[in-house]
Backbone:
């Protein structure tokens, strides 16, 4: 069974930093691309970042480019999101999502339950 | 423009058919995906590549595409279908993922 478990969320002041983690299990980790998707309180989904299985391809939403860094450790089956220069508008639930295989690629097939990031003074 | 536009809300009576549209220029060149999200839960993929259903998704969920608009159709709506629905695609480069603003489906 595929499982994605996010951690690392919390309360941080504007301008601060936070590092999110996503621990994966139940699949061959280095064979799948991963994404971070966030959702502000009461708002819709917003794609944040993508990383391919080998980390050769990395993409960011314009809203986080230059502030956030996505990475993965295939030896530890883990995905990360380093968030710097945090803003109030970065507040929300951050989901780790795995893309599908074969015909289901690049759908976001598997999602974690999310970790809440609150940026406030 | 790479924006995806959805109606904020759709209402339907139980047993009726609900249609949720998603419009955007990019949809004439990129596939669309649909996700259902119930309160307090993570999104679930219900349609991929415009019209395909993942394993385990009921047949009453279907997708269609015409030009720059894709449509999610839910036939024989059940009370349990009440949720937020999001369309998603990619920008013209295929690098960025884009979500529509979401549609709240209310079952009357």
Residues:
């Amino acid at each position: 069974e595929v499982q994605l478990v996010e951690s690392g969320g919390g309360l941080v002041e504007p301008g601060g930093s936070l590092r999110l983690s996503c621990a994966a299990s139940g699949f061959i980790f280095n064979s799948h691309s991963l994404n971070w998707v966030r959702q502000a309180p009461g708002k819709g989904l917003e794609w944040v970042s993508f990383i391919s299985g080998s980390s050769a391809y990395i993409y960011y939403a314009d809203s986080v480019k230059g502030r956030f860094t996505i990475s993965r450790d295939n030896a530890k089956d883990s995905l990360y999101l380093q968030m710097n220069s945090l803003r109030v508008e970065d507040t929300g639930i951050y989901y780790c999502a795995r893309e599908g295989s074969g015909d289901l690629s690049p759908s976001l097939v598997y999602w974690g339950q999310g970790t809440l990031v609150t940026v406030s003074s | 423009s790479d924006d995806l536009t959805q109606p904020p809300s759709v209402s339907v009576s139980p047993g009726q058919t609900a249609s949720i549209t998603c419009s955007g220029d990019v949809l004439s060149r990129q596939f669309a995906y649909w996700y259902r999200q119930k309160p307090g839960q993570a999104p679930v993929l219900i349609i991929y590549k415009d019209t395909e259903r993942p394993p385990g998704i009921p047949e009453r969920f279907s997708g269609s595409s015409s030009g720059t608009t894709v449509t999610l159709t839910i036939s024989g709506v059940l009370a349990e279908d009440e949720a937020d629905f999001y369309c998603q695609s990619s920008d013209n480069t295929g690098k960025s993922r884009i979500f529509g603003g979401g549609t709240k489906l209310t079952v009357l």
